[in-house]
What does this fold into?
Amino acid sequence: MKHTDIKEVFGSPELIGSEVTVCGWVRTARNSKNVAFIELNDGTTLKHLQIVIDKAMEIDYEDALRLGTSICVTGKAVESRQGSVEINAESISVIGSCPLEYPLQKKRHTLEFLRTMPHLRGRTNTFNAVFRVRSVLAEAIHTYFQNKNYVYVNTPLITGSDCEGAGEMFQVTTNGYTTKFDNEEDYYSNDFFGRRAGLSVSGQLEGEVAAMAFGKIYTFGPSFRAENSNTPKHLAEFWHVEPEIAFAELPEVIETAEDMIKTVIRTLLDKCPDEMKFFDAHFENGIIDRLEELISHNFGIVTYTEAIKLLKESGENFQYPVEWGCDLQTEHERYIAEKVFKKAVFVTDYPKEIKSFYMKQNPDGKTVAAVDLLVPGVGEIIGGSEREANYDKLVAAMKDRNMNLDLYSDYLDLRKYGSVPHGGFGLGFERLIMYVTGVSNIRDVILYPRTVGNVR
Ligand code: 4AD
It folds into this structure.
């Protein structure tokens, strides 16, 4: 169907006075004595295009006034009274009619209500803005790394080794539920891969393999976690950006994370002014200023040990008590970012017991060279580390955790053959979107959220 995007109609003053054809879904319609008006949206912009129907003209328009109907309109683009553009319709054809039971009849629906219809909610202003931001950020992330000589690699989604070791892997199996097996070994050896397999919680281990060949790499794909956490910031399937840098220690990992976040937010503010104004007006007042402020200052940095001290001295009544050695909960992370630093802050050097086996062991024998980036409103959006590059130390850490070394032989080989200091991080893409839009539930920044008890 040859037509002009509504975004182009708004952005091309030279179209005024000429005939254009547009397609879209009817957002609102008004029918008065001599004229009828349709607000049309085709998804290419947040703005709705006004279609003016002069009833004196022979236009068959009645069926086109129903909300949700998809229509094609040809008419003259003219300047509207507000100085914008509208279309004086000459012909209208209904592409797909829409009955009255169309659920998006009201102007504003709650996000909870819209979650019950992921297949339709994209047609609301909120989701139009969220998904434009998502798309622009994705491109900005690719551009950031591509401009800096990183190779984009696609790491496997099905894996035989657990990266984070937190027991959160979804199992991949073709064994039916009626099949009987003598024991666990029998079960797995008769399965599709002949051994236990799962969906990857992170592309990092394979990302390290690639970085040890290509120097600097990044992945951008889904990770899967069978975490039983029903929170506003956890998904069972989320999109994960994971750069891995050879010949780099923790400070370079931190520098890269800060530079990447600032660069992609700058791009977002430049490319999505309408969407950001929408979020400022409807989700978080002042969000544009807050992001401008964020990218014009250095992020904070504090060690875990100092952070624990700050939390203990805070006088706050936290739900989860704070002691050196505890994992930081969202309430602690938000206190550090929102009350102490009032900006994004890196927390470094966590106790080795609460972090993964692969992190570089610090000389103190107690902590590892880990880093998390905490932001106001959300908490952790990035987790990363320098990796343990020493074969013996890595093996010792794995043995401490009773890990099966055979499953990680490729990974260990990297420490045998020309090992180098290296590190990287993982950015939760949806968490970044929550942060930059002010949308407070992760289920509202992904097309189809997968959470405990929820898949469709
Ligand atoms: O801190 P995590 O677990 O780190 C890793 O997976 C490392 N392998 C990354 C690396 O160094 N290459 O996860 C990284 C980020 C978190 O900071 C968070 O933003 C996001 O991934 N994340 C989730 N996002 C949504 N739902 C979940 N269930 C998430 N789990 C982690």
Notes: The longest helix spans residues 125-147.
